[in-house]
Predict the 3D structure of the following.
Amino acid sequence: MRNPLLAPDLREFVAERDEAGLRDFFSGHHPADAAELLDDLEAGDVMFVLGLLPGRERAAIFDYLETTLQDAVADQMDDHDLAALITYMSHDERAGLMSRLPVERPDHIFQLLARAEREDIRRLQSYEDGTTGAVMTSDYAIVPADETAAAAIERLRHVAPDRETIYYCYVVDDDRHLKGFVSLKNLIIAPAHRRVADIMQRDCVYANVDDDREKTAEKLAEYDLLALPVVDHEHRLVGIVTHDDVIDVIVDEATEDVHRMGGVGPLEYSYLESSFAQLWLNRALWLSILFVAGFLTTWALTEFEGDFEKVPALVFFIPLIISAGGNCGSQSATLIMRALALGELTPRDWFRVFNREVLMGLSLGLGLGFVGFLRALITPSDRVAEGQLFKLSLTIGLAVAAVVLAGNLVGALMPLLLKRLGFDPALMSNPFVASLVDVTGIVVYFAIAQAILL
Amino acid sequence: MRNPLLAPDLREFVAERDEAGLRDFFSGHHPADAAELLDDLEAGDVMFVLGLLPGRERAAIFDYLETTLQDAVADQMDDHDLAALITYMSHDERAGLMSRLPVERPDHIFQLLARAEREDIRRLQSYEDGTTGAVMTSDYAIVPADETAAAAIERLRHVAPDRETIYYCYVVDDDRHLKGFVSLKNLIIAPAHRRVADIMQRDCVYANVDDDREKTAEKLAEYDLLALPVVDHEHRLVGIVTHDDVIDVIVDEATEDVHRMGGVGPLEYSYLESSFAQLWLNRALWLSILFVAGFLTTWALTEFEGDFEKVPALVFFIPLIISAGGNCGSQSATLIMRALALGELTPRDWFRVFNREVLMGLSLGLGLGFVGFLRALITPSDRVAEGQLFKLSLTIGLAVAAVVLAGNLVGALMPLLLKRLGFDPALMSNPFVASLVDVTGIVVYFAIAQAILL
C-alpha cells in the first residue's frame, strides 16, 4: 500500500518543518498508511511529525510503526512525552514497548503513569512468550448483566475510543469471573428494554492465559470469532485476543514451521532485522549437527571400499540413489508435518499413514527404479566390466526402489513419532530427513550390490 | 474443541431417532461445535438431525460441515430441500457447494431458487480460483448516504440475520459504485441525527475482484480490518472479504508454500482427503524431474572415475560434502523464500542479500570445512596411500568450504531470481536446491582434488 507519490511530499514538508502541511497531510490517512510513510524517515523526524498530532492519533500511528523505529523514537523522547504516548497506546503494544526499553527507563516511566495503567502493563508483561497472555490485550469492553440492551449500547458508545473492540463485550461478576458474552449485533437486535443477562451467551468459548498462543489462534479461527476472552486459572477475565492478533500469530507460527523445515531454528526477528551473529549461530548449530551425522556416510563408504574398488561404476550412482530417497522423504515429511500442524492428523493415525505410505513408497520407488535401471543400462561400455552391465542396472533399479521406500517411510513416520514423544514434528526438517536417508541409502545400496553383483 | 463426552449421547439420540432430545441437544451449541459433532456421523443421520432444526440454524451448521460431508448430505437431499437449505446458507459457502454438485443437478436447483439468489450464485461461481472474487461473499450490508445514523442503525438491525457482518457497512451510488465505508462503531458514536455521508470514510481501502487472494488477505491484515470491500473493474461494489475468510486464505497459502518447499505441488484437498492417485501424480512429477536432474551427478562421477580410482578415499566423502552444501542451501533458500512471502524482501534487495550471504557462506563453510579437515585426518591409514593423508584432508576441508559457500549462494539467490522472473520463489524447493548443489558440489570437489591431490 506504500504510495510512492506521497513520500517525496512528506519529505519536503518535514525538511521545511511545515507544520500546517504535515497536519493536513496526516489527517486523511489510515494510521497504518501514515506509519508506513514514516517508516522511511529518521527517528528524529518521526518524533517531530508525531509531536504535531493529537495524543490519540499519535498513539494510533505509533502502534503501527516498525518495532525498531518505535524503540528509536522512544529513545529520543523525554520521559513525560513517552508516558503521555503510552497512556494512549493499545495495551498489548505498549506492554511490548516497555519490555524493550533500556534497563532503568521503565521505572522512571512507571512513576509518571496512573496506578491502573502501571498495573495493567506489569500484568501483560508477566506472561511468558508463546502464551495467550503474551498476545492478549486488556482494553476490552464490559457490560453489567442487569443493564438493558439500550443502556449497554449507550455505555459502549462512551468507552468505544479506548477499547480495542466494542463489537464483542463481556459480562463478569464482582470478582471478575467471566459470566457471559454478548455481541453488539445481538444488543442491537434485542428489544431496547431487554436485560443483558437475558441476551448474553453463558457458555462462551474462551482461552486460558497460559494456553499456547497457537491453540488460542486455532480456536478463534474455528469459531470465526472477532475476539476470544482470556481467563486466568480462577476463571477471571484478564484480557481478550482479537482477530488481528490471531492473524499475526498464525503468520508467525507458519514462519517458524517453514524455518524449522528448512533446518533453521526459530528466529526472534525477521531475516533483515536479525543480526549476522544471530543468524550465524542459529544456522551453524543445525548445520554442524547434520554435518557430524553425515560422518556416518563416510564411515559406511569406508567399509564398502572393497566393493567399489571391484566395481567402480557403483560410485557413479551413489548421489542419484541417496538423493532420490532424500527427496521422497522430504515430500512425505512435509505432507505429514503440515497435516499435523493443521490438526488434520494425530499420532494415532500412524497405522493409516503407514499403510498409505508403504504403498506410495513402493509405487514411486518402482517407477523411479525402472527409470534408474534404464539409465544404468546406458553406462559407457568402457566403464563396466564385460557382462556386468545388466546386473549393475538391476542393482541400481532395485536400490532406487528400496531407498525411495525407506526414505518415504522415514519421512512419514518420524514426524508422527516426534509428535507422540511431545517434540515439535517440524524438527524433522528436510535436511534432517535427507541426512537420515543418506546413511540408510548407502547401506541398502551396497547390500543389494553384494547380493546381485559381487 | 471436540467434546468426547457429548458424542456418545448424540449417537444414542440419533439411534433412537429421539427428536426432542436432539432438538434440545443442538439448541445450546455454537454451529461450529454442532458441525464438529456431526462430522463423525453418516450422511443419512446428519440429514435426519439437520431436518429437525429450523432453516437458518440448519444452514449455519451445514456451513461448518467438512466439504466431503456437505457433498454427501446434499447428494441424499431432494432438490426442494436442498434449494431451501441453499437459500439460508452463507453466500460464499453455497456458491462452493453448487460448484461441486454433479453435472445436471445445479440446473434443477437453480430453477427452484429466486432470481436474485440464482444470479448471486452464478456471479460468485464465475471468479477464478485464487482470485479475491472466489473468496468473497455477497451478503454485505449497505446503508444510504443520506440516511441519519439512527436510521442506519435501525436498518442494520433488520438485515443483521442475513448479513455476514453488520459491523462494517458500505455506501454506494445508484450504479453501485463504492462511495464510502462506515463502521457500526462510528454510527453508534455519532449523534443520532447526523447523516451517514458526514460520518463515512470516503477513500476506504478496497480490493479488486481479480486481485490475488493473497494480496487481499495481506491488505486486510495490514490495516487490521474486519472486512474489505471488493469492487469490479468499474469500481462497483460486488462483495466483501471477511477476517475469517482471510485467516483461511493465509493458512492455505502457508500450506501451499510449505508443500512447495518440500517438493510437493499444491494440493486441492488435505492430505487425508486427497486420493492416492492425486498424491501420487503430484509427487511423482517432482520426484521424476529431480531424479532426471540427478543424472548429471552420475555423468560427472563417470567423468571423474580416473580420479577416484587413483585415490579411492575421495569416494568416502562425496555424500558428506554434497549434503553439507545442500543443507546450507536449504537454509538460505528457506530464509529468503519466507522473507519474500512475507514481503520483507523484494528482488531489488538482491545485492544486500548477496553481500550478506557471501559472508555467511564463507564463515559457515570455513567452520564446517575445518571440522571436515579434522574428520579426514582420522581416515584409517590402510585406506589412504602413504603421505597422502594431509593432502586428502586439505582437499576435503577446502571442498566443504567451497561447496557450502556455493550452496548458500544458490539457495539465497535463486528464489530472488525466480521472483524477479515472475515465478513462485517457493518452486526453489529444498530438494531442488539440494539437487542443484549435488552436481555443483561434485564438480567443485574433484576440481579441488585435481589441484591439490592428483
In short: DSSP finds 22 helices and six strands in chain B. The domain at 276-452 of chain B is CATH 1.10.357.20 (Tetracycline Repressor; domain 2). The beta strands of chain B are 141-142, 168-172, 178-183, 207-208, 227-231, 237-242. The radius of gyration of chain B is 30 Å.
